[in-house]
UniProtKB/TrEMBL annotation:
Protein name per Swiss-Prot or TrEMBL: DUF6143 family protein
UniProt source species: Mesobacillus jeotgali
Length: 189
């Protein structure tokens, strides 16, 4: 009987000390957007064909002091031909690449909106291919479609001085046009 009384008293004592805390669970990309660390953007139109290639990618400058955490990418194929795209990580890309102005912070409620430290770049009509780095995967994109891959939740982490790019192989004699878009967040390296 004594044990039951003690158990009952302890339970009552614990019950009166119980405090409820509200907990909000956010997906990681939403959390980073809230912090002003999530960005999205797209390349200019990428043109290739007739034996020439093209690419679009996230390029992390050596002096950025941030790591890129890839969350999503899309490939829009504006052509009547299926496209083959190779994903390259940490490669040396042919051509200089043009920096895209089409970039925005996910959190537009912050004033001023944050500015990413990395660049979205693209290049068209190149004869070379990426060198070094890793050809991580290949995607086939059907004509007049947009392929969307998302919810990577930062699986691909790109350090300063590196990149992740989608490299378009020439579809033959015909000219093709595509655009690449990315969603990512940045954290201090």
């Amino acid at each position: 009987m004594h044990d039951q009384e003690m158990t009952g008293m302890n339970f009552k004592s614990m019950e009166s000390e119980k405090h409820l805390n509200e907990v909000t669970v956010l997906p990681e990309n939403v959390y980073h957007s809230y912090l002003g660390e999530y960005f999205l953007g797209q390349t200019d139109l990428i043109s290739f064909g007739g034996g020439f290639n093209g690419w679009g990618g996230l390029v992390n400058p050596a002096d950025s002091n941030v790591n890129i955490f890839l969350n999503a990418y899309t490939i829009s194929n504006y052509s009547n031909e299926p496209l083959t795209t190779e994903a390259w990580i940490g490669s040396i890309l042919p051509g200089n690449g043009k920096t895209s102005p089409h970039v925005a912070a996910g959190n537009q409620a912050l004033n001023p909106p944050p500015i990413p430290k990395i660049d979205i770049k693209s290049a068209s009509f190149l004869s070379g291919k990426p060198s070094r780095g890793t050809n991580a995967f290949v995607r086939r994109v059907e004509p007049i479609t947009t392929l969307t891959k998302h919810d990577f939740q930062g699986m691909f982490i790109i350090p300063p001085g590196s990149s992740i790019s989608l490299f378009f192989l020439s579809p033959g004699k015909r000219q093709a046009h595509a655009r690449v878009a990315f969603g990512w967040w940045e954290e201090k390296a």
